[in-house]
Specification:
Blueprint (H helix, E strand, L loop, with lengths): L12 E6 L4 H12 L5 E7 L10 E3 L15 E4 L13 H15 L4 E7 L21 H16 L5 E7 L1 E2 L4 H7 L4 E5 L7 E2 L1 E2 L1 H17 L6 E4 L5 E2 H8 L3 E5 L7 E2 L4 H4 L11 H11 L3
Parallel strand pairs: 1-2, 1-4, 2-3, 4-5, 5-6, 6-11, 7-10, 8-13, 9-14
Antiparallel strand pairs: 9-12
């Protein structure tokens, strides 16, 4: 991995982060408050007033208001999005992404990072690379694929775009939400006696990856339009629950259940230096307990 890795330069940059009140946005704020990246001066956005103690805040109801007039920006990160849930308006993901791109272009930002998902891929037993076939199997994945397509058509000269196909951020995913209820979680058990394994990343790991990518954008490093984002090794869900100290019970996996859904992060590893802790369930659990509860 080291022969492919390019260290990102350090330089101060102004970054607008859209969606700073969601689960991932709150954890990112907490990580960067605890460990401020030397290269980043974030401007946080939410629909309402700034949370207590948060500085550099922009109140903007993105789907209801035109982009505000902003001072020059170096980059925009669009964490704002509609996640799976009853009555979710998944089409809003495209509108939010395009609004972020419009704001970036108006403020002279060099790059925009849009949060996509591994859900855009077609099912595969092999690790999924950015060149793997698309074929979302649920409305959320279809909406993220549509968002990527719209972003590709709307790319503007002078502003690069990267769609971050994120695996799972431990704690903010469906497993984490189930564990947060305090009730025992039900896991599919497969023929080998184990449960599902997925590509995960901790809240701190995601913040570090994002800081690396922002530094590369600032330096003018060519960045791909799509980029898988996850830890370098898959994580078994039962190991993550154990690290959280949560109970679970087994249920026989139905025939259609997929035991392994993993991402190939070779492309990301050429830009970001992973550590052993980036795939460690105990580290992920500790990061969510520290940064994901705000």
């Amino acid at each position: 991995m080291s022969d492919q890795y390019r260290a990102a330069p350090q330089d101060v940059q102004t970054v607008l982060v859209l969606g700073a009140t969601g689960l991932v946005g709150r954890s990112l704020r907490a990580v960067w408050a605890d460990q401020p990246p030397a290269s980043i001066a974030p401007l946080w956005q939410g629909r309402g007033p700034a949370p207590e103690g948060v500085r550099n805040w922009l109140t903007w109801r993105i789907l209801e208001q035109a982009p505000p007039v902003l001072a020059p920006l170096d980059a925009v990160v669009v964490l704002a999005g509609v996640t799976p849930g009853p009555g979710a308006d998944y089409a809003a993901n495209t509108a939010l992404a395009l609004a972020g791109m419009k704001a970036a272009a108006a403020a002279g930002a060099r790059h925009v990072f849009l949060c996509s998902s591994q859900a855009v891929y077609a099912p595969s037993a092999a690790p999924l690379s950015e060149d793997s076939a698309l074929g979302p199997t649920n409305p959320y994945g279809a909406a993220k694929a549509a968002m990527e397509a719209a972003a590709a058509q709307a790319e503007q000269a002078g502003t690069g775009v990267t769609c971050l196909r994120i695996g799972n951020i431990a704690g903010s995913d469906l497993l984490g939400k189930a564990a947060a209820t305090g009730k025992p979680v039900v896991l599919d058990q497969f023929a080998d006696g184990r449960g599902p394994e997925r590509s995960y990343m901790g809240a701190g790991g995601f913040a570090r990856v994002l800081a690396t990518l922002l530094a590369h954008a600032r330096a003018g490093t060519p960045l791909p339009f799509t980029l898988n984002v996850a830890g370098p090794r898959p994580v078994a869900m039962e190991q993550l629950l154990a690290a959280w100290g949560r109970d679970w019970r087994w249920s026989p996996a139905p025939p259609e259940a997929r035991q392994s859904v993993t991402l190939d992060v070779t492309r990301l590893s050429r830009l970001h230096r992973f550590t052993e802790a980036d795939s460690d369930p105990a580290t992920m659990a500790a990061e969510w307990q520290r940064y994901g509860q705000g």
